[in-house]
């Protein structure tokens, strides 16, 4: 399996927007509407992490005109799908992916220099 370069448009998620909070430009994503799981610290109650599960699906029609081989959609939990049947059926395509081009592959195309076997050994080198 190869690695993918993935591009996700966060504004494709449900009810998202861009806002300035304390002078900082932020992307605002509603957690419940997008089935984002937020874990909390047991002692402080503050959020520790927020998880959005996604699935990369292989393009049925092959590689796109931009070189994309996969499209990305949210992968909703069983509970979310049960409560939001229409939303889960119409999950938006939020991004795409394509294989990472390895820099190491260029090494295979390097041609090793050849040594001329007709070199005159009568030089004046001291060794």
Radius of gyration: 27 Å
Kindly report the spatial arrangement of strands forming the biggest sheet.
1-8-7-6
What summary fits the major beta sheet?
Answer: 4 strands, antiparallel
* Percent range of helical residues: under 10%
Please tell me what the overall shape is.
Answer: globular
> What is the end-to-end distance?
53 Å
Unreliable segments of 5+ consecutive residues: none
Q: Please count the beta strands (DSSP E, at least 2 residues each).
A: 8
Mean pLDDT score, rounded?
A: 86
Count of individual domains: 1
Tally of DSSP helical segments? 2
- Overall structural class, as computed from helix and strand content, comes to mainly beta
User: DSSP strand (E) fraction?
Assistant: 25-35%
Could you give the order of the helices and strands? EEEEEEEHHE
Word description of this protein:
The chain has 127 residues and is mainly beta. The protein has one domain (4-99). Helices cover 9% and strands 31% of the residues. The protein is built from two helices and eight strands; from the N terminus they run βββββββααβ. A four-stranded antiparallel β-sheet has the order 1-8-7-6, with no helix packed on it. A hairpin with a 6-residue loop joins strand 4 and strand 5 (47-51). The radius of gyration is 27 Å and the shape is globular. The relative contact order is 0.19. The mean pLDDT is 86.
Entry keywords:
mainly beta; two-stranded antiparallel sheet; 127 residues; four-stranded antiparallel β-sheet; 31% strand
Task: Outline the secondary-structure elements.
Elements: E1 4-8, E2 17-21, E3 24-28, E4 37-40, E5 47-51, E6 54-58, E7 70-74, H1 78-83, H2 85-89, E8 95-99
Antiparallel strand pairs: 1-8, 2-3, 4-5, 6-7, 7-8
């Amino acid at each position: 399996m190869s690695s993918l370069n993935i591009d996700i448009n966060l504004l494709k998620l449900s009810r998202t927007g861009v806002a300035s909070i304390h002078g900082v430009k932020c992307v605002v994503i509603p957690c419940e509407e997008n089935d984002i799981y937020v874990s909390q610290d047991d002692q402080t109650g503050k959020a520790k992490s927020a998880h959005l599960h996604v699935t990369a699906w292989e393009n049925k029609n092959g590689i796109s005109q931009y070189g994309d081989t996969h499209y990305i959609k949210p992968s909703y939990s069983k509970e979310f799908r049960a409560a939001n049947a229409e939303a889960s059926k119409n999950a938006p395509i939020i991004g795409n992916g394509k294989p990472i081009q390895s820099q190491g592959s260029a090494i295979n195309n390097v041609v090793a220099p050849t040594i001329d076997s007709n070199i005159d050994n009568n030089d004046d080198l001291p060794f």
